[in-house]
Amino acid sequence: MTEILYLTHILKKLMTKHTFYTLAFTVAGCFAAQQADAQISSSQLNGQTINTITTAVPLLMISPDARAGALGDAGGAMGPDANSIHWGSAKLASIEGSSGISLSYIPWLRNLVPDINLGYLSWYKKMKKRQTIGGSLRYFSLGNIVFTDIVGNTIGQFNPNEFAIDFAYARKFSDRWSGGITMRYIYSNLTNGIDVQGTPSFAGQTVAADISTYYSNPDLKLGGKKATYSFAMAITNIGGKISYTKTADRNFIPINLRIGNSLKLKLDDYNSFTFLFDLNKLMVPTPPVRSDGSALYPGIPQGEVAFGKENNVPIVTGMLQSFSDAPGVLQGDGSRKVLSEELREINPCGGVEYSYNNVFAIRTGYFYEHPTKGNRRYFTLGAGVKFNVFTLDLAYLIPTQQRNPLENTLRFTLQFDFGAFQSQNKSSE
Questions:
Q1: Does the model's pTM come out above 0.85?
Q2: Among 145, 186, 233, 249, which is most exposed with the fewest C-beta within 10 angstroms?
């Protein structure tokens, strides 16, 4: 549903010079979710059925920091820093510094519209040797909008926005293993409460949690060189559904399973390479194929599930069935391969980072999503430089398809190490 609203906003921005919106068109997305299954399932791409999993507040899946953004969004087992809350708070326990803060900015979909932005602020502080706390604020703005009614009369002006506030706790269980938990409050206001044909809309709100674990072994040898292997697993955004009207079904938020691996190879005292590989799987029900009442679905009433499983289910049920509820890839003989479609819902991504003396780094990566599941496919490039207590990272996204809305996406991240700053001050006294 939220994706429909996002698309509505963007389309309207493209359709008119002054960004006028018709209210009916905007809020209609709230009701369209109830019919989305049939609409999505009937769409075709090169002879394959498009069956994209949609969720509310998809901003929670956008990589907020430039370092991971330059590595193909493979941040699961990336070295810990102030942005680790997004990827799995367990990594916070392994940060070497005592405290730090990070600020990121992303001009989102800048190739289409000029005023959609994502900001991300995060921080951490070591409490004891094995315990670390942290927090973050993520804010997403869809730009300024002038709402009009169905006949074009202006009825208000509004800036649709969403934000999420996090608080995280991480603890080391041993020198190599750590665990973390994050609590999250989510707020999504897309319509400013304006009524459409007597039906009121309201901001969506919910709470969620992340659980994560992180393992790192720095004592390995590979080809006679020092190496560090890291593994991470996180289930993020485990939380309640969101709705924007009292009459529409509540929608899942993007509950996601992430498994990350990284291998850092230290060539000498100055040069090192890090190789990263992540797998992501939405733990959200796949839209089923529903009967249209025709002879194609004999004996199945119109609107009932013909293939797959019902997706309007409780949260825990949806999470568990997400690994086996796909309708299946339709074969030439009329049969369906469920496993094939389930595998399509796994998004692999990876990247490589070269670092010189922990002062300068260059990065590249690749993200893949199956064409029938969203078709996000892109290369990423980036660089980072450290100035004493400051670290500046940049990332650039290059889609594999022409005229992709993500084309020319930039990310900027600035980090500040308070612990290093305090150490410098003490040494100068």
A1: yes
A2: 249
